[in-house]
Amino acid sequence: MTKARLGEDANDPERRLTKSLAPVREVMEAADLDFNQLLQRDLDDHRVAVQLIPYLMTEQANGPAFFPPVVAVLLPFRSKRPSQFAPLEVEPTLVMDDGAQWLQQRAGEAFQVQRLAAPDGQPHPGSIGKLWWNSAEAQLVVLDGQHRAMALLAVERTMTKSWQGSSGAKYRSFYEHQVQHLIDEQGGDLDLSKVEVPVTVCWFPGQTGADGKPHEAARKLFVDVNKEARPPSESRIILLSDAELKNILTRRLLSELRGNNGGDLMPLYAVEYDNPQVNANRPARWSVLTSITVLKAIVERLLFGPARQLQDVAFKQGPGRHNVREQDKFLRTQLGFASLFNEEIDDGGFPYRRDELGNAHFPLGQIDTITERFAATWGRAVLTLLSRTAPYASHSRALTALRDSWHRDDSSLALAYDALFSGVGVFWTLRASHDDFLVKKSEGLNPSKSDIVVAWESLDKREQDFERLRAKEYLDSTTQNHVKRANAAFAVFNTQACQIGQMLALGTLWELRKQQGSGGLEELPAFAAALVDGWNAYFAQEHGKGRDRKLAFSNSRSDVTNPLNQISNMDTPQAVYFRYFWFQALDTPAAWEHVSRWFVDRHAFTQVLHAARLFYLELLIKQNANALKASRPGSPQAKLEQLAAEMAHKTLMRALRDWFYLDQDQYDQWAASLKVPTQRSQDSGPAPETVTAAAE
């Protein structure tokens, strides 16, 4: 427990500590930061500049300013990369220093600890200690209170004019003007020597040597410290938590993208993984294709189920709690734990049973084994679908083209570039700063337009450039009409419902293969690639003056007639209906040619397709019935239900005829076999053993 101090530049320990407090972004290069090494929330530079720094530097009329202690942890780094400490000496040595005796321990050349000793050579009850570290091998990283620490650093660097030589030079424009303005307001005579902030400095004696895992310990400490504070965002919890396999496997997807040297996967900057909002269900960046929360939702559904969600296409999961035992059992099946582990597992003295492993109960020493199996099977399959399916591949190519054409010849354009492609947290700082600028203008003030505001405004033009590039990639045209059509299509493709629906299609068809006695886990990536080839063949069909199948999922009635997609809202639970859309695209001649060899019995696929179609038809009937009740109050219920069913059949038949080659006779034959109620209970009855099928 110590303190960091501002004031005149000096070499005393408290001033040196201020300079040593470092956010992770200044300790490691962003491009080298592995997702398993993230320790903190992203910095909200705007909040630090406009709230914390004025609070720190301005005398308070209602009492002293106070910052709670900053928590910093000593961690091993070499060349800005996480490393390990040398082993800590087991037995402390009694040494004389500063006229007193101390118990001293060293960890190689990385750090040294001294604790004040009593006359008998035991630790002194006063609990006084000293810590040294070698900055070439260790860094003091802010674990909690990084915004407070950044406020101190910003003031210190501005006062001592040391921004340019610091590791945070690129963030200078966020702070220097604000600090200097506060100094000028007080006539330049600002005594900051009384500004002291408490600091708790931590290190982990038990995490040194070859078996030590100090970075993992720091992540756990971060989560523990923040449990009772303002909760971290869902994105940050996924990046930090090692307590659940769901989060660990989701991070592995991101790491696969970061380490992808072959260029066959979507770029990492097409994923939003730094959203600071606690309950952010939709990405905020127009540039991204998907988000870390969508990837986690995909991991949950494909690996944890429940199994019925993949095996019964007429099952819609309710909002209640899941059966954890059933989910863990499904995970063990999906990753083939039987071929991965012995029945009994000893992990550093902690025993585990293979048939008890699950999301929150797993051997830490076997994480690499589990994640490698995931990455080689389900992970590769998921990333193949999101990277190679035609609309998603077009989005990624357009985004890369935008990045490659970006001229960063002034600071505002460089900041805007970082906001989309490299600077974790920069996007949110630009947005908050621009919002603050607009508020000041609305209040009649005349704020200056800083580089930060200009950077945010430049993103609007870049969005239009990107939309043209995407239309060119997807529809091979940049006319205003084609840009509009592409935007409408991607307003569907980029939803959680559509993306999760595609993954449900993958999972359900894989279950179908398993039921037919096929489906070795090692075949899963090739199976996913075949599905992508089928879908791409469907989207790529020559259309001339006919219907462009690339628009088949669009629900914009101004761009397409008789659309299949009639879903009134496209929230995440609607993914079960999008699964049907992806099935229907495979049931076309161009697509089936690529997937036929994977299904020994097409009849089984047709059963699944028909069951999914019936489930979607019921949604259309329900939507129509609700609309009719609202527009025709007082009409007989039976008559409204009959009319709703007739309307739904007509809508679905026309869409299948126009977009999926199903003629009137084929539809009538299928519809004649149905007895469709107006509404059916989605959760009643026991889960079936096999895929629910409509009568042929």
Describe it.
The chain has 24 helices and 13 strands. A hairpin with a 3-residue loop joins strand 5 and strand 6. The C terminus is likely disordered.
Q: What's the number of extended β-strand segments?
A: 13
Would you tell me the structural class of the helices and strands? alpha+beta
What distance lies between the first and last C-alpha atoms, to the nearest angstrom? Answer: 74 Å
The total of helices stands at: 24
Give the helix level as a range of percent: 40-55%
**Assembly level:** single chain
User: Which of globular, elongated, flat, extended, rod-shaped describes the shape?
Assistant: globular
Largest sheet: 5 strands, mixed
Mean pLDDT: 87
Alpha carbon gyration radius: 30 Å
| Unreliable residue stretches | 677-696
Proportion of β residues?
A: 5-15%
Summarize the structure.
This protein has 696 residues and is α+β, with helices and mostly antiparallel strands.
Sequence-ordered SSE layout with sheet pairings:
Elements: E1 2-5, H1 13-20, H2 24-27, H3 45-57, E2 70-78, E3 81-82, E4 93-97, E5 100-107, E6 111-116, E7 129-133, E8 138-144, H4 146-159, H5 172-185, E9 196-202, H6 214-226, H7 234-240, H8 245-258, E10 271-272, E11 290-291, H9 292-304, H10 307-311, H11 324-334, E12 344-347, E13 350-353, H12 367-388, H13 390-404, H14 411-421, H15 426-442, H16 451-475, H17 480-493, H18 496-515, H19 524-539, H20 575-586, H21 589-595, H22 602-631, H23 637-660, H24 664-672
Parallel strand pairs: 2-9, 10-11
Antiparallel strand pairs: 1-9, 2-3, 2-8, 4-5, 5-6, 6-7, 12-13
Helix pairs in contact: 3-4, 3-5, 4-5, 7-8, 8-9, 8-12, 9-18, 12-13, 12-19, 13-16, 14-15, 14-16, 15-16, 16-17, 18-20, 19-21, 20-22, 22-23
